[in-house]
Design goal:
The structure is a homodimer of 333-residue chains. Helix content of chain A is 31%, strand content 26%. With 333 residues, chain A is an alpha/beta fold. In chain A, helix 1 crosses helix 10. Chain A is globular, with a radius of gyration of 20 Å.
Chain lengths: 333, 333
C-alpha cells in the first residue's frame, strides 16, 4: 500500500518534492494545490514536467482537495514563515492529516513563534497527527547532523558549523536570494528589508542549544556581502567585478556571555570549494567535513520525502527533528 | 530528579561508562555489579578510581542489586555476544528495568540471533520497557551515522564506510584484540578461533540494508593482518619489523549479487592518518570524513551514557538505533 501524498505549493521546492514522490515506489501523489493561476486547472504531471499525466488536477482549492484526495500526509511548501502557513496547517489538521513542511520557521518553532507554535501543536494533538518542519537547512546540516555527532561526546564546549557553497549550481531564485549581481548599496537595502537572507539560523541554534542543555542568551546575526574581485561567470546572474556575488551570513548563540554555537553560511557564485563542516570542541573533539557540500535543492526535497513515513507514524503534536526517529533515506519498498 | 543507573560489568568499557555517569549531572550510580573477585565487596568509587566513595558496594549478586538499588535503567557491559548477556537481561527485565548495552550483537540483533532476539523483545514488551544495544561501532560510525547521512538523498546506490585508526591511542585490550605484536601465523590462528576480530559488521550491514530497503544476500567478511615494514614504537605492545601491527577487516554486503555496503576497518599501531569516512554513491553523492577519527573507547562510553534518557522514555521492546530518536549528547541538565 502506497502512502497517499497531497502537495500544497508547487513552487521550485514543492515541485522538487513532488517529483521525488512521483518517482518513489511506496508513495503516490493523490492531490496537488497551488494558487498560481498558471497552474490551476492543469494536470500535476504536466505542471511538474513529468512527461506523463498523474490524473491529479490542481483545483486551487485546498479544502476541496483534502476532502477529494483523502491523503495520508500533506506536504506544505508555500512559505518560509509560520504565520504564512497557519491557515493551510489548520485546514489540513481539521481533516486529521499529518503534515511535513519545508517552512523554515517550522523547523524549531517553540522559541521564536511561541503563540503560533502552541496553536499548531494543540491542533495537531487534537487531530491525533504529527506536524514536522524539515529540510536541509534548517533541518539537517546545521542542526540535526551536528547534534547527532555530539552523541559520541562525553563533553561539549562549543559547536561551529560552516556551510560554503558555490551558488552557481543552485537555481535562479536562490542566486537572487543571496544577492548575486547587486551593488553593495542594493545589497544593504535588501538585507535591511530582509529579502536577502537565509531563514532558519535562530531555529538551528536553538535546536542545538536545547539538545546540549544550554540556556541560550542572545543570538547575534549578521549578513555581509561577498564582493567579487573579478567578474564571475557560470552563474545564472551576471556578476561584474565589484558587484555582490552572494552573502556571508553568520549567527552566534551565546550562553552566559560565551560564544557556544556559531553558524556560518557562505553562499556565493564562484566559491572555490563547497563543503559542510561541523566542529565540536569537547571530548572527543570532532571535526567532520562533507566535501563538495550537500546540494541544497535536492537535499531539502529529499529530507522532506524521506521524512514522510516517519511523520505518518510519529506521535501527535508539533514535532522537531530532535524527537523524530533516526533520519534515513526511504526507498519506499 | 536524577536517573538512577545500575552498572552491570565494570571491565574497561563498563568502567568508562560508569565514570561518565558519575561525572554527569542528571545521572546517579545507584548500583554496580561485577563478578570479578577483585571488585566484589569494594566501593564502586574505588573500583572506578574516582578518588571518592560512591557508597555503592559491588555485591557480585545481580538480582540482589536490582532489588536493593531500584534503578531506572541498567547498563550492561559484560559480553560481545547476545548469548552471553541473556541471563542478565532476563533478570533485569523481570524487575521491569530498561537496559542499555554495549553488547555488539545486540546492536541489530533480529537477523543473526533471531530466536534470542525475539525472546528478549518479548520479555521487554512484557516488562513494558526498552532494551537498546549501542556504542560507537556498531551503533554509530558504521551504521547510524551513514544512515542519517542518506536522509539528504533522493537515490542511494552504494554505501562505503571506512574507519582507519592508529591503535596506539587505544587501551591495551584493544591493541591485543587487533593482534598487535603477533607473528603472521599466530594472527592467522587467532582469526580462525575468532579471538582476533571486530564484532558487529554483520549487524551494521544489516541495519544499513534494512534502512535502504535492500534485500540483503550474502555478507562476505575477511580479516587480514597489517604487517609492520619496520618496528612500530609508541604502542602498549612492542611490534618488531615483520610482525603484525593490527588488522584490516572488510565486510561486504551484496544485494542481487552487487556490492552495496562495504565496511572497512583498518586498526593498527602506526596508521599514518586516523579518520572515519562515509561515501554514499547516489544523488546527491555524499563524501563525509571525520578527520582524526572518533576515539572508540570514549565514544562507546559516550554513546551508551547519552542514550540513557532516550531508552528510559522509549517504547517497550528490543529497540535499535534506527528507531530511537535523534542521537545527541545528554548534558543531564
Amino acid at each position: 500500500m502506497s502512502i497517499r501524498v497531497l502537495h500544497v505549493g508547487l513552487g521550485p521546492i514543492g515541485a522538487a518534492v513532488a517529483r521525488q514522490v512521483a518517482a518513489r515506489p511506496g508513495l503516490r501523489i493523490v492531490g496537488a494545490v497551488d494558487i498560481d493561476p498558471a497552474k490551476v486547472g492543469r494536470d500535476a504531471g504536466e505542471v511538474l514536467d513529468l512527461g506523463r499525466r498523474l490524473r491529479v488536477t490542481d483545483s486551487g482549492d485546498l479544502d476541496a482537495e483534502i476532502r477529494r484526495s483523502a491523503p495520508d500526509v500533506a506536504v506544505v511548501c508555500t512559505s518560509s514563515t509560520l504565520g504564512g502557513v497557519v491557515p493551510q496547517f489548520e485546514a489540513i489538521l481539521r481533516r486529521r492529516v499529518p503534515i511535513v513542511t519545508t517552512t523554515e520557521e517550522a523547523a524549531y518553532p517553540a522559541s521564536y513563534n511561541t503563540r503560533l507554535s502552541r496553536r499548531i501543536d494543540a491542533a495537531a494533538r487534537k487531530a491525533g497527527v504529527a506536524v514536522l518542519g524539515t529540510g536541509v537547512n534548517p533541518g539537517f546540516t546545521m542542526d540535526a547532523l551536528p547534534i547527532a555527532l555530539t552523541a559520541v561526546c562525553e563533553r561539549v564546549e562549543r559547536i561551529e558549523v560552516r556551510r560554503v557553497q558555490d551558488a552557481r549550481i543552485r537555481r535562479l531564485p536562490f542566486q537572487l536570494k543571496i544577492g548575486a549581481g547587486l551593488t553593495r548599496d542594493e545589497f544593504r537595502r535588501k538585507v535591511a528589508d530582509r529579502t536577502v537572507r537565509h531563514v532558519g539560523f535562530s531555529e538551528s541554534i536553538q535546536m542545538i542549544a536545547d539538545a546540549m542543555g544550554w540556556s541560550l542568551g542572545r543570538i547575534v546575526e549578521q549578513v555581509k556581502p561577498k564582493v567579487a574581485q573579478r567578474a564571475v561567470t557560470g552563474g545564472l546572474v551576471p556578476v561584474a567585478s565589484g558587484r555582490v556575488s552572494g552573502l556571508i551570513q553568520r549567527a552566534v548563540g551565546y550562553v552566559d556571555g560565551a560564544e557556544r554555537v556559531t553558524l556560518t553560511l557562505e553562499a556565493y557564485l564562484g566559491a572555490p570549494e563547497s563543503y559542510d563542516s561541523v566542529l565540536i570542541e569537547g571530548s572527543p573533539r570532532i571535526y567532520s567535513k562533507i566535501e563538495g557540500g550537500v546540494h541544497g535543492d535536492i537535499a531539502t526535497a529529499s529530507m522532506t520525502v524521506n521524512s514522510i513515513p516517519a511523520v505518518v507514524e510519529a506521535d501527535a503534536g508539533f514535532r522537531t527533528m530532535r524527537d523524530m526517529r533516526l533520519p534515513s533515506f526511504f526507498s519506499g519498498t
